[in-house]
Structure formats: C-alpha cells, structure tokens
Write a structure and sequence with these properties.
alpha/beta; Isopropylmalate Dehydrogenase; single chain; 361 residues; 2 domains; 48% helix
C-alpha cells in the first residue's frame, strides 16, 4: 500500500521547481503518494507541465499561503507564519500519527487519507524545521532534544551515521547518550546495520582525551545496555568504516559536516581540472569516465536524501537548501523508509529500558 509523504514545496533555494520534479520522480519510482504543500496558484501550472502525459501519477497539492525563507529568523517565523508550508505539512504528519494510533486501538478510522501523512521532507530553513517539528509533533518520551543525523560515505562502501550535525549548539552528557540511542536504532532499522558500532567523537582514542563533555559522556555510554559502544573515535573514523554511528554535539558535528563537504568539492573540482589539463589526461579521463562517475556518486549528498530529525514524534527529514530534484526524490524515499521502519517506537522502548536500569541502580 502506498505511503503518504508531504513535501515543503517552497523550501529549497530554487523552489518550487526541484520539489515538483523530485516529487514526480519519487511517485514514478517508489510506492508513495506525494503531497506538495504551497501556494496552489504557483504550484499547479508547474506540476501540470510535469504530469501532462501521466494524469494518474499520485502527486497532489495541499494549499499553504506562507513559507519560511532561509533569511527568516526561525523562532519569529514559526510564531508569525501560522499558515507556513512547514506548519501545514507537519500538521498532516501529526494527523497521520493520530489516525494510526486510533486504528491500532481498534477504532474504525483510516490510517491514511486526505490531510494525513506518514512523513515530511523540507529543504528549507533548518532551524525553522526543527522548531516547527518540536511545536507541532512534540518530543518522544525520554528525549530532551532532537538531533540531526546525516549519512557519511566510507572507504568500505558502507554508510556511516553522524549526529548531531546542527540541531543543538550546546549539549550535555545526557543529550549525547540519547543521541547514541537514536543513532543506534536508526542505523539498525533504516540502514540495516546489525549491531552497529557506536563511537564518541573526540581528539584521541584514549579515555583521557577530549573536553569535559566527552570525558563526562564516555562512562555513561560505556554503561549503556544494548549499545555496541566502541569508545572514543577520531575525525578520520567518520570515513574509514571503523564506526557505524558517531556521536557529538551539534557545534562539532556541523563543523565536521561542512568541512567534509568543502573537501569533497575541492577534490572533485581539482580532479576534473587535472583530467582536462592535457591531451593525455583527457584521453585518460574518457577511459576512466565510468570510474569517475562512480566516484562522484559515492560522494554526492543528493544520493543520501537528507538528514532525519531524530527525537521528534513523527518523521521529519531536512535536506540541503541547494537540493536538486534527485536529492528531493531521495529525501522522499528516506522519509518513507523511516516511517516503515518504526524507528521512533524503537527509540522510546530503548530509552525506557535504559531509564529502568538506571532506576534499579
């Protein structure tokens, strides 16, 4: 049965064209119904062009008269723009959660339908997305703060998860413990990594290395039941495949993420220029085109779709502001996978069991 995913159609830098193109691609390739949220007079003509020969493609428009821009102050925009695409879209997810809960309780209500959805994707203002999700969806039991998680490519070809990458500038040891649990469940249920290795990002592997936050967090993670904690890890471990889930505060994680993106751009640009520099290298480039394309694909953020906002009561995926239609399509896929995997119930159950162990201790 198709799953309903909502897309903020006015979020990206070049909205709404990438969102509409991405929604159409997702509806073609995945078992989803996509709901584009935004001003109908803007979205309808563009969508009509893209579905001209596919009248029954499951892409729909849900009206919203306002949207939050990258230049808006998140807290103020969330309060004042009450009909924003983010608020309308996340309300649809809230309605979907309520409907599914009612259905599971034995009440004769549909778990899907008009006004209901299983997940939300935006390539808009990250701060506004987090604030709106917290306000509209609320937090999971046992979670104090949400965390943004992102997929990182590794030399082993397997994905690695890094969190938090910007939802919280400051965190305490309890927050990092919750991030570890959330990352563990996501890696296990969505990335399909059995017994994922969880590491704490620091400046050395030794227990004595790091700042006060990492030193205070380390013993808490070591005592965490059911988590395969491997101790401190360093920046290089993000990419060598030695760790499946890397935990840090949002300040460190965001710097690591943005630095990594800059290095990827430097490497791909430099390699492209080198391959075009001489006739010999151009011939070599033609011969190695398939390998170069595979290299770019492994490092392309659009392949990974977006960062799940873990800890809120629902599915919210946040993509790059520069997302193209491919990134939007994959963001919709990630939202659907997240919803199918029942990640949030796993997070709550694990945190409940952890709290019970602490109480007994």
């Amino acid at each position: 049965m198709p799953i309903d995913i909502v897309v903020d159609a006015m979020g990206s830098d070049k909205a709404p064209d990438p969102e509409i193109r991405g929604a159409v691609l997702a509806a073609r390739h995945y078992d989803v119904r996509v709901h584009l949220v935004g001003p109908e007079d803007i979205l309808r003509p563009i969508l009509r062009q893209h579905v001209r020969h596919q009248k029954h493609l499951p892409v729909f428009i849900t009206p919203a008269s306002e949207w939050i821009t990258m230049g808006d102050k998140a807290a103020q925009a969330v309060r004042t723009k009450r009909d924003s695409t983010m608020r309308v879209g996340l309300k649809m997810v809230r309605e979907g959660l309520a409907s599914r809960a009612s259905s599971q309780a034995g009440h004769p209500h549909s778990a899907s339908g008009p006004g209901k959805a299983a997940g939300f994707f935006t390539a808009g203002n990250t701060g506004a997305a987090m604030a709106t999700a917290k306000m509209v969806l609320g937090m999971l039991s046992g979670v104090d703060r949400p965390a943004l998680a992102t997929i990182v490519p590794t030399t082993r070809g397997t994905p690695s998860l890094l969190l938090d990458v910007g939802a919280n500038v400051d965190s305490d040891p309890d927050n990092l413990v919750q991030f570890a649990v959330m990352g563990h469940i996501y890696a296990q249920n969505v990335l399909k990594i059995s017994n994922p290795r969880v590491g704490l990002l620091s400046i050395g592997e030794e227990d004595s290395k790091g700042n006060a936050l990492t030193r205070d967090t380390l013993p808490l993670l070591r005592a965490l039941p059911g988590i395969n904690f491997i101790g401190n890890v360093e920046g290089r471990d993000l990419f060598n495949g030695n760790c499946d889930v890397t935990v840090c505060d949002g300040f460190v994680g965001n710097v690591a993420l943005k630095t990594s993106e800059g290095i990827v751009k430097l490497v791909t640009t430099s390699l492209r220029e080198s391959l075009k520099s001489t006739v010999t290298s151009q011939v070599g480039a033609l011969l190695s085109r398939r390998a170069f394309d595979d290299f770019k694909k492994r490092l392309d953020y659009s392949e990974y779709g977006g960062a799940p906002l873990l800890g809120v009561r629902g599915v919210c995926i946040v993509g790059h502001g520069s997302s193209n239609e491919k990134a939007i399509m994959n963001g919709i896929r990630v939202a659907a996978e997240f919803a199918h995997a029942e990640v949030n119930s796993g997070i709550e159950a694990t945190l409940d069991s952890t709290a019970a162990v602490d109480t007994k201790a």
